[in-house]
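Here comes my example:
=====
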Amino acid sequence: LLAIDPDEGLNGQVSYAIKGETAGILFNVDPRTGLLYLESQIPRQYITNNKQKTTINNQGNDLTYPTFLLALDACDHGEPRRCTHFPNLQIQVTY
Protein backbone atom coordinates (compact mmCIF):
# COMPACT_ATOMS: atom_id res chain seq x y z
CA LEU A 1 0.00 0.00 0.00
CA LEU A 2 1.25 3.48 -0.74
CA ALA A 3 -0.25 6.80 0.31
CA ILE A 4 1.56 10.03 -0.51
CA ASP A 5 1.08 13.27 1.39
CA PRO A 6 2.94 16.21 -0.22
CA ASP A 7 3.16 18.11 3.10
CA GLU A 8 6.48 18.42 4.93
CA GLY A 9 7.28 17.30 8.47
CA LEU A 10 4.71 15.39 10.50
CA ASN A 11 1.94 16.40 8.11
CA GLY A 12 3.75 14.46 5.36
CA GLN A 13 4.25 11.25 7.33
CA VAL A 14 1.60 8.59 6.74
CA SER A 15 0.69 5.63 8.93
CA TYR A 16 -1.45 2.65 7.98
CA ALA A 17 -3.93 0.53 9.93
CA ILE A 18 -6.08 -2.45 9.08
CA LYS A 19 -9.68 -2.64 10.32
CA GLY A 20 -12.39 -5.28 10.47
CA GLU A 21 -12.77 -8.91 11.51
CA THR A 22 -9.49 -10.10 9.96
CA ALA A 23 -7.40 -7.30 11.51
CA GLY A 24 -4.39 -8.85 13.21
CA ILE A 25 -5.78 -12.36 12.79
CA LEU A 26 -5.33 -13.26 9.12
CA PHE A 27 -3.83 -10.09 7.69
CA ASN A 28 -1.88 -7.17 9.06
CA VAL A 29 -0.20 -4.05 7.72
CA ASP A 30 3.08 -2.45 8.74
CA PRO A 31 2.02 0.95 10.15
CA ARG A 32 5.10 2.74 8.74
CA THR A 33 5.63 1.10 5.32
CA GLY A 34 2.11 0.00 4.34
CA LEU A 35 3.33 -3.53 3.61
CA LEU A 36 0.34 -5.88 3.75
CA TYR A 37 1.13 -9.42 4.92
CA LEU A 38 -0.41 -12.63 6.21
CA GLU A 39 -0.29 -12.77 10.00
CA SER A 40 -0.47 -16.57 10.05
CA GLN A 41 -1.47 -19.51 7.90
CA ILE A 42 -5.01 -19.18 6.55
CA PRO A 43 -7.27 -21.74 8.31
CA ARG A 44 -8.97 -24.27 6.03
CA GLN A 45 -12.49 -22.99 6.86
CA TYR A 46 -11.59 -19.55 5.47
CA ILE A 47 -10.32 -21.12 2.25
CA THR A 48 -13.46 -23.21 1.68
CA ASN A 49 -15.94 -20.47 2.73
CA ASN A 50 -14.43 -17.52 0.84
CA LYS A 51 -13.89 -18.92 -2.66
CA GLN A 52 -14.91 -17.10 -5.82
CA LYS A 53 -14.63 -18.26 -9.43
CA THR A 54 -11.96 -16.16 -11.07
CA THR A 55 -10.33 -17.57 -14.18
CA ILE A 56 -10.40 -20.50 -16.52
CA ASN A 57 -7.20 -22.51 -16.89
CA ASN A 58 -5.79 -23.94 -20.13
CA GLN A 59 -8.00 -27.03 -19.86
CA GLY A 60 -11.19 -24.93 -19.59
CA ASN A 61 -11.71 -25.61 -15.87
CA ASP A 62 -12.87 -22.93 -13.46
CA LEU A 63 -10.30 -22.06 -10.80
CA THR A 64 -11.37 -20.82 -7.38
CA TYR A 65 -9.31 -18.87 -4.86
CA PRO A 66 -10.17 -17.53 -1.40
CA THR A 67 -11.10 -13.85 -1.53
CA PHE A 68 -11.20 -11.49 1.46
CA LEU A 69 -12.44 -7.93 1.95
CA LEU A 70 -10.28 -5.70 4.13
CA ALA A 71 -10.78 -2.19 5.46
CA LEU A 72 -7.67 0.02 5.68
CA ASP A 73 -6.89 3.52 6.91
CA ALA A 74 -4.03 5.77 5.80
CA CYS A 75 -3.56 8.77 8.13
CA ASP A 76 -1.16 11.68 8.25
CA HIS A 77 0.47 12.77 11.53
CA GLY A 78 -0.45 16.44 11.32
CA GLU A 79 -2.95 18.48 13.29
CA PRO A 80 -5.76 17.99 12.61
CA ARG A 81 -5.09 14.39 11.74
CA ARG A 82 -6.58 13.45 8.37
CA CYS A 83 -7.34 9.89 7.32
CA THR A 84 -8.47 8.19 4.16
CA HIS A 85 -10.53 5.05 4.64
CA PHE A 86 -10.50 2.21 2.10
CA PRO A 87 -13.52 0.10 3.16
CA ASN A 88 -13.51 -2.57 0.43
CA LEU A 89 -10.00 -3.65 -0.48
CA GLN A 90 -10.39 -7.07 -2.08
CA ILE A 91 -7.52 -9.51 -1.51
CA GLN A 92 -7.40 -12.75 -3.46
CA VAL A 93 -5.02 -15.45 -2.24
CA THR A 94 -3.66 -17.63 -5.03
CA TYR A 95 -1.73 -20.80 -4.48
Remarks:
- The first strand starts at residue 14 and ends at 19.
- The chain has a mean pLDDT of 79.
